[in-house]
Inverse folding.
């Protein structure tokens, strides 16, 4: 069975500050890991994904995440937050590279203060 | 290119009523899934399908039925709505075996059962 834990249901940062959203996973098979973003009243948009190639993954909008097997983590970072980054972020795990049958974390609401 | 289309966007039901949430995709994806999103719980998989004529249960299937008669469509049926089914429902689709791809999500259906 797979599971995902996101530490911190709400994260607040100042504009220009570092964004760090934490994700830990549990999987009995090599995992494929994903970060999705959801803007208000919208569907989910893929930010980035890890599929066993490079452990440091770069995504859209300046986000990146590092897969650390020893820590079972896949934290999402962005060096400098923009107001437009305010959204809910979901970490997810799948046994399939296409991201089918995703198991999601609880989500982290990111607030960016001016 | 429409992607994944869900209808309706909003729906209010009375307890005990039935309804069907529609989902259609135009990308010839084999894989289609239904998730529900509840506050603090992320998204949870209800049912999924790996191709026409094949469906299976996800994490929270009780109270929901699905069928997949065509590649394009994957409707979700609530036979007797309950207040616990108040949620936002998302449909997703993806290729099944192509590497380096992703799941695409619809815009969601917000359902309230009173």
């Amino acid at each position: 069975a797979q599971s995902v834990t996101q530490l911190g249901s709400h994260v607040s940062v100042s504009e220009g500050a570092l964004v760090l959203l934490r994700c830990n996973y549990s999987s009995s098979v090599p995992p494929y890991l994903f970060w999705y973003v959801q803007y208000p009243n919208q569907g989910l948009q893929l930010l980035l994904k890890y599929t066993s190639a490079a452990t440091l993954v770069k995504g859209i909008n300046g986000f990146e995440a590092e897969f650390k097997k020893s820590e079972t983590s896949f934290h999402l970072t962005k060096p400098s937050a923009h107001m437009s980054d305010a959204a809910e972020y979901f970490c997810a795990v799948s046994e399939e590279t296409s991201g089918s049958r995703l198991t999601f974390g609880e989500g982290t609401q990111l607030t960016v203060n001016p | 290119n429409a992607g994944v289309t869900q209808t309706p966007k909003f729906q209010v039901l009375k307890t005990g009523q039935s309804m069907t949430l529609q989902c259609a995709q135009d990308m010839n994806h084999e894989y289609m899934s239904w998730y529900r999103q509840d506050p603090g719980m992320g998204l949870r998989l209800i049912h999924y399908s790996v191709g026409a004529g094949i469906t299976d249960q996800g994490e929270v299937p009780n109270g929901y039925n699905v069928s997949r008669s065509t590649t394009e469509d994957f409707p979700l049926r609530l036979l007797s709505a309950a207040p616990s089914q108040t949620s936002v429902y998302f449909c997703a689709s993806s290729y099944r075996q192509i590497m380096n791809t992703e799941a695409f999500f619809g815009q969601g259906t917000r359902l309230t059962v009173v």
User: Anything to note?
Assistant: The radius of gyration of chain A is 13 Å. The mean pLDDT of chain A is 92. Chain A touches chain B at residues 4, 6, 9, 34, 36, 41-46, 49, 51, 90, 92, 96-107 (CB under 8 Å).
